[in-house]
Structure formats: structure tokens, C-alpha cells
Amino acid sequence: MDGRLIALETIPRMTDGDIETLLAALTRETNRVERVDLSFGAVWIKRYGTERPPVWTKAQTALAGLFGQPFLRPSPYLDSNGMIAREIRRIETFAKAGVPVPNVLYSSGSALVLSDVAPTVTSRLKTLATSDPAGHDDLLVACAAHLGALHAKGLCHGRPHPRDFFIAGEAIGFMDFEEEPEAAMPLATAQARDLWLLFLQLADRALMGRETNDRAFAAWHSVAPAGIDGELAKMLRFLGKFLSPTRLIGRVHMGSDLRRFLAATGYLSDVLLNAPRPADASKAGKDD
User: Fold this and answer.
1) N or C: which end of the chain has fewer CB within 10 A?
2) Keywords for this entry (predicted)?
3) pLDDT of 40
4) Is pLDDT above 90 for 172?
């Protein structure tokens, strides 16, 4: 097994059986992401190099240039070694900033072994949706607040989704750092894109509708850097051109992707582009 252990002090003592189980899992190379149960708990194996670069990556780059929209650019494509190095580097960067992240237990040229960070926000939301609707939406608001705090630290996630967030005591932790949009666009643009991507999930999942959207946006906005507003407004002016055609398509078939696009883009456009400008909006206007 050609690899290396990382942060050795964070690794629980492994029995001979644990080592055999983990070695067997690493060598069979089946699922891209696999849970492995050991004597002290679960670990996760992430395998790289199992997928070809999607055609959409090249299409995104072309569209970004055609429309002059940096937020459409994909993260730079890397081989498996580069992807692993990027994910480890980003995990270390987030950890140094005090953000809860999984521990990297082992790395090789094709796989990472990560500590388990259950429960994820997605699993908690599923439970709360029926047992505690108010708590469900409070958790969505907390996700937005912690994303804003992340942005305030000069970081961005790249693919914020409840399945990539986890409960870490009173905080929200982050995982799955394969994307690095700030390497392809200005940081403020990447952070604006982060918020829009989160709202694709949040606005669709909110059980209390506009009330939760307003609370979530306010929670993000209260801690996020001021300069993101202008970048977000630029994005929404472009995306807003597709709202009417999307509504027309939705009359024939309203799939989940269309529904999320309409909910998130429509809400954020209403807040940032249609709402009366506050008296202190001059700073945001300069960024626009």
C-alpha cells in the first residue's frame, strides 16, 4: 500500500483486524466513496481517478468566456494526485481557520481515508422535517450563518450543500473540498456563487417559505464581507434573464432542478435587485 498516514495523533489505535479490513477495502477499489466500519467506529474512503473529466467542464469554460461571466468557470481540472493534494490542502486551510472538518487519516495516489463526521446536516434535516419543522428551518438558517462566517474568514466552499455540512456541537462543519472556485475566479465571485448554490437547496427545502429565506439571508449577510453584494447582484442580473423561459418550461414539466433554480434565483433577485436600496447602500453600489 503506497501511501502515508497523516495527523497520526488523531488516529485511534487500530487492531490487526482493523488494518486487514482497511487494506482490503483500499485494494478492492469499487465504490468511489465507501464507508468502512472498524473497531473504533467508521472511516470513509474517497477514491479519485475513477471518472473522466466531464464534457460539461469544457462547456462551462466556453460559456463563461462567451457570456463574460466568471462565476460559470469550473474549478481547474486535476489528475487524481492533484485532486487529493487539493483536498488535503483545503482541509488543512479550513482547520487552521478554526472550521470543523474531517481528519485525513491516510492518503495515497488514488485514495483518501477520512474520519467519520456524522451526523450530516442532511440526515438531521430529514429527522426534523416531520418531528420539528421549526427546528428544521432553524438548521437551514444556521447553515447560511456558518457559510457567512466562512466567507468572513476569506474562504469559500465551492459546492455548499447540506450533505456536505455536518453537526459539530454548536457549530456547522464542512467536508468535500474537491472544488476550488477561487482558483478560477475572484474570491468575492466565488463566495457569491457559494451563497446562490446554498440557496438552491435552502429556498427549496424551507418549510416556512419566505420567512426562513429572509432569516437565512440576513444571517449570512450579517457576517459576510460587504463586497459580495455587488458580485451577487451581477450574477443575478445574468441569471434573471432565464427566469421567464424557465417558468414557461416549468408549465410543461417542473423538474426539481428547475424548481430549485426558480426558488433561489427568484428570491435572491427580489432581495438584491428589486428591494428599495437602504440609506447606506453606497458601499455595495461601488462594488456593483
Assistant:
1) N
2) Kinase, Transferase
3) 85
4) yes
Q: Which residues pair with 36 in a beta bridge?
A: 43
CB 167 within 8 A of CB 173: yes
Per-chain mean pLDDT for the chain: 87
Identify whether the C-beta of residue 61 lies closer than 8 Å to the C-beta of residue 73.
yes
| H or E element that contains 91 | helix 80-96
Q: Residue 165: what are its φ and ψ, rounded to 5°?
A: -115, 150
DSSP E strand stretches across the chain: 3-5, 33-38, 41-47, 104-108, 111-115, 165-168, 171-174
Q: Which of 115, 134, 166 is the last residue of a domain?
A: 115
Same domain, 125 and 263: yes
In the chain, the percentage of residues whose pLDDT exceeds 70 is 88
Alpha carbon distance 100, 166 (integer Å): 9
pLDDT in tens, 133-158: 999 999 999 999 999 999 999 999 99
70: in domain: no
The answer as to whether 180 is a domain residue is yes
Cα distances (Å, whole numbers) of residue 184 to 97, 152, 180, 190, 195: 22, 20, 8, 9, 17
The answer to whether position 32 is within a domain reads yes
